[in-house]
Amino acid sequence: MELGKHIKEYRTERGLSQEDLAERIYVSRQTVSNWETDKTYPDVESLLLLSVLFDTTIDELIKGDVETMKDVLKNDAQKMQAYATVGMVIAFAGAVLFVGGIGFWNWGIVPSIIIGLLVWGFGMYLLLKVELMKRAHDVVTYRELVAFSKGEPIDRNNPKSQRARQHRVIKTIILLIVALAFGLVVGGLIGTSMSPYAG
Q1: What are the residue boundaries of the structural domains of the chain, listed by start?
Q2: Mean pLDDT over each residue of the chain, to the nearest integer
């Protein structure tokens, strides 16, 4: 693949760091790094911005890499959809096994927790893979995800996309804390209602 090499050459010729380039075309530094190492490929909008910034044509940037790029992006979009669907189903199955093991099948609390967590954990692993792929392609909002899955240009300049890219780490930590608190409350309620000492 030549595209990653071309991006790096044009970037260094202009004295830009990966972070400088990322800021100018509205992507993350990691995304630029992934392009330069051929881990991922720019979408159409990013290619347009790169060609304007580097004062070259898109043809010069991609030189014969078009079909490979289309195949990789299409495959990644299909993988993301498959991982998301299967991950959600498996995570839900883990929750059903946990509740069913305690309430219906009389497996006992410990086996139900172990089986439920193992199945649920595998579903979460697949959903984590989806998040990593979204990050690699710098896809943040639902609208961007839909455009990416259809192979359409991704608009990262709209206010919603720019807001979604602010404080991503803090938002992720808050979401994890809320999910953990919710899990603890639900687990506590289930445990209390199953307790032999409950009213």
Answers
A1: 3-64, 73-154, 167-199
A2: 81
